Request: fold
Amino acid sequence: GITGVIFIERINNSGIVLYKENTLGLEYLGSAYADFNEFRYVSFKSITGASAADKDADVSKINDLSASIDDLLSKYEGTYITSEVTTQFKDTVSNWTKYKSDIDKAVQTGTINSETIELGDSLQKSFDELMSVDAPAAAKKCESNASMAQTAMIIMIIVIVIGIIVSLRLGYYTSEIISNPIEKLSTFGEMLAVGDVEVENVI
Reply:
């Protein structure tokens, strides 16, 4: 029972670590990526000829999306980030800061240069690469948890089998200890009934 509890606790802790380190990170990164794509779409729509009324709505939407991406990237940074992605993540954040500044200017002027477009394409690729690094790590932890659960099951089955064997052996010896004196007393009683009082014959 104690062994089972220990393994269940270990599996539970591994699940929490998986959620905090990988699942949560992928959720933040995926949401930031989705917002980024919408940010690009709304920005281009605003730059390439939205009406004055639509442009005001677009600018408001762009600002909301920008704030959301900043928040999601900050949350992603708060999850477990391996050294493998630290540099790439910092570069992504740096490029994002420059890109949203360039987009802000482009929305105001109504023109966008090729450098800003290329930076946006580069950012999209960076998001893809970051997620491609996090996803295998999450899958690896899932496999580790599954292996741990299987090991726990095998150990618990072994412990149960050993427990049954020990219980049967103890039951047998206990019954022997209890039944032998009873049998002797029964025999002694039968001897007394016929007038034989030679106790040494029984004990």
Summary: The chain has a mean pLDDT of 78. The CA atoms of residues 109 and 142 lie 49 Å apart. The longest helix spans residues 114-193.
